[in-house]
Specification:
Blueprint (H helix, E strand, L loop, with lengths): L1 E7 L2 E6 L6 E5 L2 E2 L1 H11 L4 E4 L5 E6 H14 L5 E3 L5 E3 H11 L7 E4 L14 H7 L7 H11 L1
Parallel strand pairs: 3-6, 5-9
Antiparallel strand pairs: 1-2, 1-7, 3-4, 6-8
Helix pairs in contact: 1-3
């Protein structure tokens, strides 16, 4: 998640560049669409589609952490600066699928590998060191604890 703070007419403007977001967000009552689909398919003993070898990497961030970081940027960020928000929690798609299967006590045989998407990026990395260094922000919610709560919620 990239937050760009600028000023216009004396007001703070924040532009969230969602099309450039290279993270997946999760919470106990909301989750990234792919996570939700995989979870629902596993619960129904349907195949879980994994593109290519499943080794595409994304950063996973808890929704509340993301919101708190945005709030901090609004209150303390410097106008004209760009702050990347990330949890430094990179996981492969295959790790996430296996985690869902394990949490729901389902067999790995539900995984169906399909051809990778043409031009698929294999790693979406976030360097969030600037928000940590300049604003003192760090994620509070630990993936291993809260992803389980997310999967269990529905």
């Amino acid at each position: 998640n990239i937050c760009d703070i600028g000023t216009g007419s004396g007001n703070i403007i924040i532009a969230l560049k969602a099309e450039e977001a290279h993270f997946n967000a999760y919470a106990s009552d909301i989750s990234e669409e792919a996570l939700e689909v995989a979870k629902e398919n596993a619960k129904r003993n349907k195949e879980l589609t994994v593109h290519g070898d499943g080794l595409v990497i994304r950063d996973w961030i808890y929704v509340d952490d993301n919101c708190e970081a945005i709030d901090l940027i609004v209150r303390q960020g410097k106008p004209g600066q760009i702050y990347n928000i990330g949890a430094n929690c990179e996981k492969t798609n295959l790790e996430i699928v296996n985690l869902i299967l394990k949490k729901l006590n389902k067999p790995k045989s539900l995984i169906k590998y399909v051809q990778d998407r043409l031009g698929q990026d294999h790693r979406y990395g976030i360097d969030a060191s600037k928000i940590v260094k300049e604003l003192g922000w760090e994620p509070k919610y630990k993936f291993n604890t809260y992803i389980g709560k997310t999967i269990s919620f529905f």
